[in-house]
Write a sequence for this structure.
């Protein structure tokens, strides 16, 4: 049996050797298809990893209290539900502080503003919050210092800049500390510049472009004294369910159930991941169209090959080959052709991923390899079986007479 | 012992809905073990059709075909293929070697398709046959790199690899010069005399036909004469 299959495989390779260019061109369709599908999977995986890293870098054991009820686990994130949702205020913050298991409470008011230095004016996001935000959200200081509880109490006109906006406003962030920036008509002293945090890709907020100010100072831009979101940090992860439950009960006393969401970091991550999963699946399916085209290319060439080799089929049949032997010959050729394309496609995708990894955490996992090889084998079988059947069903006498 | 027997065999081809061409008419032929038979006739006489039926490449429209006294009617395609593999060795006018395979691979081809456990070492036997037919050292060459006479000798080696009872040669010298043709005919003689193979040669050439001890003349699909020469 091993001798039989070895012969069939060798026979297929000797045929490919005689038609090198045709073999390459036929495999090209599968090559491109597999490479694009593997790349899309690799980018999808990378994206998920990237998002997870971003979330982790925001701080751990966090619970988010947001307006509206749009953040449902695995659900959509349109933001429409936030409009008309609860408008949190400092009273909520104080009450939430009393919850058992809460280590920190951080309210946040976010507003898009225009900020100017002596030479530049840039759009930015104002982030008015408490002094503990830097600890809770893992924001590390690079230059100068962060604002303190005292600054919050005194409504100090101080700002801490994200490194990107600092660079944008002062050409070099090293020059920012001590300078004055203007938001509206008010001047603020830059007291610190944060370390880079990343983010900002794929429509996510660019944390490095935020301007942090004490929430009390921020009231000048927030006359209603509302907060967009409140972050709770649990003492440790085991307290998260308890904190969530208490927070919900507490807020229900003030707001309708559908006016706010109490969610943990993982749930947001799940929501975001589910969106990217769907997007990635759609992209992979689009990539799979090229696999289909590649398969049709293989089928076409296999039909040509059957016609070209009709006499050879007749000779083999005269020498005792059964129909299934002929079927095996052609099926083996189409599968090898397809697998060949799949392997090269996988190799090409791997090289591209290695190259891209410097800039983006794309990676190829075992499932991508299995999918690439499995799909190309299946394509070889599906698109090879019809020409192979045609070959197998040729009458020996008609085949051997074929000129 | 009868090795092959055709009884009242007809072969008809439908050319279109209304026209049917009868290639063989009421053919009765019995060939016994060890015979050297020529089937002779002009072009279009039905001799090749007869060879295809004897060689199990084609079936009769009517009548019965017996191989070693066993009626082959009712055998399925796989069984007929296996019989072709073990019972008959073909030698064609155009050699019918597969150009992408080496000489050795061509000779081994029937052993690949054998469903039975081989009782011999195929590679060893193939090399012995190559040596016997003066082709030693050519095993890794390709068919289009050797002469026509050599190709036909490879085809004969291939026909012998499964040690069949019957060698069927269809115009075996048709594509060869006279010297190579004579060599091939000598080989067929040798296979009959030394190897005790039953040899059936299909030819239109009287000289070739007369190498056999028995000549079956066929014309318009009918056997018109069946005689012994020696």
């Amino acid at each position: 049996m091993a001798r039989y299959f070895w012969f069939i495989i060798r026979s297929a390779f000797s045929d490919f050797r005689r038609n090198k260019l045709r073999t390459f061109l036929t495999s090209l369709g599968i090559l491109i298809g597999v490479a694009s599908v593997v790349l899309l999977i690799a980018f999808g995986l990378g994206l998920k990893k990237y998002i997870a890293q971003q979330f982790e870098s925001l701080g751990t054991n966090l619970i988010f209290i947001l307006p509206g009820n749009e953040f449902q686990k695995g659900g959509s994130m349109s933001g429409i539900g936030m409009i008309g949702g609860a408008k949190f205020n400092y009273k909520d913050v104080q009450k939430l502080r009393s919850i058992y298991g809460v280590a920190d409470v951080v309210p946040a008011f976010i507003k898009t503003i225009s900020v100017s230095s002596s030479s530049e004016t840039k759009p930015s996001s104002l982030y008015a919050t408490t002094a503990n935000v830097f600890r809770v959200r893992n924001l590390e200081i690079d230059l100068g210092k962060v604002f303190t509880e005292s600054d919050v109490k005194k409504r100090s006109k101080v700002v801490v800049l994200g490194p990107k906006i600092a660079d944008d406003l002062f050409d070099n962030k090293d020059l920012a500390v001590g300078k004055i920036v203007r938001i509206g008509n008010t001047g603020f002293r830059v007291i610190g510049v944060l370390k880079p945090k990343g983010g900002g890709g794929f429509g996510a907020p660019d944390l490095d472009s935020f301007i942090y100010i004490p929430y009390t100072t921020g009231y000048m831009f927030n006359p209603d004294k509302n907060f967009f979101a409140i972050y709770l940090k649990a003492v440790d992860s085991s307290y998260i369910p308890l904190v969530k439950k208490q927070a919900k009960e507490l807020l229900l006393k003030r707001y309708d159930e559908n006016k706010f969401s109490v969610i943990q970091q993982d749930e947001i991550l799940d929501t975001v991941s589910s969106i990217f999963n769907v997007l990635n699946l759609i992209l992979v399916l689009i990539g799979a169209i090229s696999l289909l085209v590649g398969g049709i290319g293989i089928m076409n060439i296999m039909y040509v090959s059957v016609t070209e080799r009709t006499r050879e089929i007749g000779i083999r049949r005269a020498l005792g080959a059964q129909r299934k032997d002929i079927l095996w010959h052609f099926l083996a050729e189409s599968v090898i052709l397809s697998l060949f394309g799949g392997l090269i496609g996988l190799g090409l995708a791997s090289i591209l991923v290695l190259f891209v990894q410097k800039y983006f955490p794309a990676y190829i996992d075992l499932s991508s390899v299995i999918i690439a090889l499995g799909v190309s084998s299946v394509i070889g079988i599906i698109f090879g079986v019809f020409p192979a059947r045609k070959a197998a069903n040729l009458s020996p006498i008609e085949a051997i007479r074929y000129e | 012992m009868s090795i092959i027997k055709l009884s009242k065999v007809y072969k008809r081809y439908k050319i279109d809905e209304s026209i049917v061409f009868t290639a063989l008419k009421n053919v009765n032929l019995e060939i016994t073990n060890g015979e050297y038979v020529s089937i002779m006739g002009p072009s279009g006489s039905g001799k090749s059709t007869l060879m295809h039926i004897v060689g199990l490449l084609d079936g009769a429209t009517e009548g019965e075909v017996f191989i070693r006294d066993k009626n082959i009617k009712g055998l399925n395609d796989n069984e007929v293929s296996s019989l072709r593999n073990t019972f008959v060795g073909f030698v064609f006018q155009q050699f019918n070697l597969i150009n992408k395979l080496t000489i050795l691979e061509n000779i081994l081809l029937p052993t690949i398709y054998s469903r039975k456990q081989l009782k011999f070492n195929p590679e060893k036997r193939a090399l012995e046959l190559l040596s016997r037919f003066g082709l030693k050292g050519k095993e890794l060459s390709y068919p289009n790199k050797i002469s026509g006479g050599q190709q036909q000798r490879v085809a004969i080696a291939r026909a012998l690899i499964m040690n069949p009872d019957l060698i069927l040669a269809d115009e075996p010298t048709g594509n060869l010069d006279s010297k190579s043709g004579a060599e091939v005919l000598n080989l067929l003689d040798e296979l009959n005399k030394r190897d005790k193979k039953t040899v059936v040669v299909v030819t239109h050439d009287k000289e070739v036909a007369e190498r056999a001890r028995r000549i079956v003349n066929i014309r318009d699909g009918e056997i018109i004469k069946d005689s012994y020469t020696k």
